[in-house]
């Protein structure tokens, strides 16, 4: 390929190119390098009307040479005219350069996917740019965030104060805007790790937590939000255990009822027209019932002070459901007690009549 020197005054920047953010410190380093070693890589341009040229890629090198007062700059002249091919080449070139921000990438992909001039697909872009479809889609997800958050997004995975990485933001992408941006800014301030952000995001996706409570949680720090998640997770597991216990108790009760029905049927079938031989003497059903009930109920032991006082640690939003569970448990016990008190009274009555 031919490299020619072209006067800088004849070259125009492409204002529609995907890269527009240039770090001043990095630009100064490039200028120092050019002064010491010269420009090592030419820029690429295409001819335009009036004998002028427009940059395809190399804007930063162009800016550095222009600032240094260079009269000419080495160029590769392209005859490309297809806007799609030119834009794809600009993206491909910038993907190999440091400083091409995640937001610039996202905006470039979004433009190719949605601009009527291009209307590409993720599959097409994946094949052209050598990036997976998931990579392209994840970059576009960053555009869900507001400008205040976008300004903090940086490349890489290092967690830095008042900066945000793509990995920190992706767990928040499906949250409503009123939660998403506020949480992102909190995590930038508190340098919150990605694993903690994933846990906290679950709080704001939990439909059992009211919108009012979620709004109050936004005032907490990253560390406080993690503690809140830990409490909710512990309570969730405890509720699951209680539900499993109730299900097991219901299963046992159903089995006992089925066994009792089977015992009743052994006394004879009234519809058969036949009388069965008398069954061997056996334990009355009420005795078997009491024995089974007693075996399933553990002996009473006073609650330890630490256990009883832990009721104060139940979060306010969990107290009403807990109270309902206690009421349900008490009601169930009272029903059992009422039935067995009647049995006890009938025994007393029978004993009095026998004297």
Q: Could you explain the architecture of this structure?
A:
Helix 1 (24-37) crosses helix 2 (59-67), helix 4 crosses helix 6 and helix 10 crosses helix 12. The chain starts with a strand and ends with a helix. By secondary structure, it is of the alpha/beta class. It has helices at 24-37, 59-67, 83-95, 102-114, 122-129, 133-141, 147-150, 166-169, 177-190, 194-205, 211-217, 222-265, 285-296, 305-309, 316-354, and strands at residues 3-7, 11-12, 43-47, 53-57, 72-77. It contains 15 helices and five strands. The chain has a five-stranded mixed beta sheet with strand order 1-5-3-4-2, sandwiched between helices. The model has no long low-confidence stretch (mean pLDDT 87). The longest helix is centred in the C-terminal third of the chain and has 44 residues, at 222-265. Strand 3 and strand 4 form a beta hairpin. The protein is 58% helix and 6% strand. Among the domains are: 3-81, Conserved hypothetical protein from pyrococcus furiosus pfu- 392566-001, ParB domain (Alpha-Beta Complex), CATH 3.90.1530; 83-144, Arc Repressor Mutant, subunit A, CATH 1.10.10; 146-252, no CATH class. The radius of gyration is 38 Å and the shape is elongated.
């Amino acid at each position: 390929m031919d490299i020619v020197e072209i006067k800088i005054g004849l070259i125009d920047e492409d204002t529609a190119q995907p890269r527009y953010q240039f770090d001043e410190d990095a630009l100064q380093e490039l200028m120092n390098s050019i002064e010491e070693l010269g420009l090592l890589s030419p820029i690429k341009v295409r001819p335009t009307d009036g004998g002028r040229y427009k940059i395809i890629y190399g804007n930063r090198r162009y800016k550095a040479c222009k600032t240094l007062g260079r009269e000419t700059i080495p160029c590769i002249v392209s005859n490309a005219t297809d806007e799609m091919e030119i834009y794809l080449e600009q993206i491909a070139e910038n993907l190999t350069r440091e400083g091409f921000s995640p937001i610039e990438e996202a905006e470039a992909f979004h433009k190719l996917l949605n601009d009527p001039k291009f209307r590409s697909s993720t599959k097409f872009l994946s094949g052209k740019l050598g990036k997976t479809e998931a990579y392209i889609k994840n970059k576009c997800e960053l555009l869900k965030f507001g400008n205040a958050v976008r300004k903090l997004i940086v490349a890489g995975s290092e967690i830095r104060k008042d900066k945000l990485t793509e990995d920190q933001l992706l767990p928040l992408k499906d949250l409503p805007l009123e939660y998403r941006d506020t949480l992102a800014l909190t995590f930038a301030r508190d340098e919150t790790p990605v694993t903690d952000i994933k846990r906290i995001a679950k709080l704001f996706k939990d439909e059992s937590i009211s919108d009012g409570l979620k709004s109050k949680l936004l005032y907490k720090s990253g560390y406080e939000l993690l503690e809140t998640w830990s409490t909710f997770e512990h309570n969730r597991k405890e509720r699951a255990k209680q539900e499993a216990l109730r299900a097991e108790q219901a299963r046992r009760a159903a089995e006992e009822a089925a066994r009792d029905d089977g015992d009743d049927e052994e006394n004879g079938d009234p519809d058969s027209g036949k009388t069965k031989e008398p069954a061997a003497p056996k334990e009355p059903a009420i005795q078997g019932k009491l024995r089974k009930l007693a075996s399933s109920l553990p002996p009473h032991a006073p609650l330890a002070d630490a256990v009883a006082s832990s009721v104060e640690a139940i979060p306010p939003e969990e107290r009403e459901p807990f109270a309902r569970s206690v009421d349900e448990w008490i009601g169930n016990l009272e029903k059992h007690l009422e039935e067995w008190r009647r049995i006890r009274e009938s025994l007393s009555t029978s004993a009095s009549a026998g004297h």
